[in-house]
Amino acid sequence: MTDQETASALDPPPDVVARLERMKARDVILRVEGLDKQFTGRGRGVKALDGIRFQTHRREFLCIVGPSGCGKSTLIRILAGLEAASGGVALLDGVPITGPGRERGMVFQGYTLFPWLTVKRNVMFGLEMTGTGRSEAARQAGEWLDLIGLSAFAEAYPHQLSGGMKQRVAIARALINQPRILLMDEPFAALDAQTRARMQAYLLDIWKKIDVTVIFITHDLDEAIYLADRILVLSPHPGRVQEMIEVPLARPRSPAQVQSAAFRATKARLESLIHAPTSSAAEEEPYPAMPLMANVLDTVE
Amino acid sequence: MPSVRSAAFGWGLSGGAARPRMARPNWLRIRGPLPLGTRRMLGLCSFLLPLLVWAIVSYVPFIWHPNMLVTNPGDVDYFQVGMSVDRATFASEVTSALQAKQAPPQGVPANPLYLPSPGAVASAFIAAFTSSAGNAEGGWMLASLWKSIQVIFWGFLISSLIGVPLGILAGANTAVSHLVEPIVEFFRYLPAPAFGALAVAVLGIYDGPKIAIIVIGTLFQQILIVANTTRKVEFGLVEAALTLGCRNGRLLSKVIVPAILPDLYRDQRVLLGWAWTYLIVAELVGATSGISLFITQQARHQHFAAVFAGIAVIGIVGLGTDLLLGRLGRRLFPWDRSAAL
Ligand SMILES: Nc1ncnc2c1ncn2[C@@H]1O[C@H](COP(=O)(O)OP(=O)(O)O)[C@@H](O)[C@H]1O
Ligand SMILES: [Mg+2]
């Protein structure tokens, strides 16, 4: 693929341009301005985030990618209000985020379902915490269980579910509160490839149907391209915004698009950003040469 | 020729046909699984083996038996029927009687008085429950035991009413933890019996000081153990609840408490066991009562079989309660997988 072809494949087709224009015409829901995070450990501190600045529009699907340790989790935890920023602000609908709140739902990589509650009671949890009556909460939870196809497991306990099922319950539990924004930190990283593919399609399906903005962290570039409207690329040490990329793929997305030129060009672009020589080649640990510990005549290659 | 020395580093799977590894359970494997029948059998053996040793020592005359039980004093004037003397004395009396052409004493090998046989303890056990020696209500042991159980119950209840909430608060909140735990750590090292005289002075000689000793013995450990259990709650659950709009008091009652319940229940079982171990000391404070009264009385009359029966009863009641609570726990916490031992 020549540079020219890559460039043309990265140019979004007209329908994608129109959709992105529509998206940008919607109001800005989250504005992050110069967010810093300094961890003060014993001895030396770690600067995890440095001047993060971006914004998302209502109903956008934004993916955040970056090498391991670049501060993705720290960023999303600040947005969730679970961690305090050292500097800068994040504004949701113009209001600074100061702590956790039900208008920001979160799905964690570890499932964090409440093991003592049945699946249905887990989904009801958010509503019950915010004063909705038991019967109304149960009714809505029932609807959500229908939506995620787990009605049959309403009375099961989390430990009886598979990983994919647990994560579906976690998504329903977050969305039943009707959050403005859904924060997801590598939610499918622990799932096997098939389950993950199904969960991605299923997440897009839900996102399409309800009025929610998704911020989705992943280190899987394919996943990011498949899901996102735009992709925020972070660079490590300290975490900085490297680039905001618009995904030139039409919706609805289908697994077949992975083969398209636009997909491959986007992935090549992301890879060049993430593995750019600037991104701390010096900090990569060299791995030591390993002595041969097998019969030299017994070759496997 | 390249060296083949490295072949020695092979991972040990070279040669030999594959042997069926898992055919028989290997008893020596770390955390290796065992079939239920085997586990039950081992549980039974855990009691039967010591019992077997005890029975052998008691009933096989040539094992140990350092004394002779006099069955016929002969002409030895200070011997009486039923008297227990050590073998050396007995043998020297026999030889001196024979030399003096007197009737030698006769006897059978016997263990010291303080080691009664299993059979003697069993019959003392039954007798203690059926006879009403010194007590109008019948079943002296039963009445004593009931008294002891009441002391344990009130002591443990009072301790739990203070210790569990305080422990949970200390585990959940750093300020409470730093305010409470240092002084508790201090008190934890003070032996509960040291407070005996003080407890009697304050609370009189009846049940009050006994209950107080149980409380003092249990409470401080309880606060620290419950606080530790609470600290072990997976923080991700708390964070998830926070993002779902759960706050402060609700966080405690709807997340932390349910999250620790199975472990708290296990802690309480262990602590109840400790409360039992304080029982005897507690009952000796003030006017001796309960199972301790039974045991000390029997010991004073050298009825060691009954003493053993009294001690065994404590073990049986304690173990029985624990088994019952364990079974109940599996019912109460169906989501708790570590309970399925
Ligand atoms: N609680 C913490 N205390 C100290 N350093 C932390 C803490 N959490 C994260 N870090 C550091 O901040 C950096 C970013 O971490 P993280 O946000 O988890 O990265 P990512 O999710 O992108 O892998 C890492 O260098 C990590 O070591
Ligand atoms: Mg992370």
UniProtKB/TrEMBL annotation, chain A:
The keyword Coiled coil does not apply. Coiled coil: none annotated. Residues 30-261 form the ABC transporter domain. InterPro entries: AAA+_ATPase, ABC_transporter-like_ATP-bd, ABC_transporter-like_CS, ABC_transporter_ATP-bind, P-loop_NTPase. The keyword Nucleus does not apply. It comes from the Bacteria. PROSITE patterns: ABC_TRANSPORTER_1 (PS00211), ABC_TRANSPORTER_2 (PS50893). SMART domains: AAA. GO terms for molecular function: ATP binding; ATP hydrolysis activity. Keywords: ATP-binding, Nucleotide-binding, Transport. Belongs to the ABC transporter superfamily. This is ABC transporter ATP-binding protein. It comes from Acidisoma silvae. The lineage of its organism: Bacteria, Pseudomonadati, Pseudomonadota, Alphaproteobacteria, Acetobacterales.
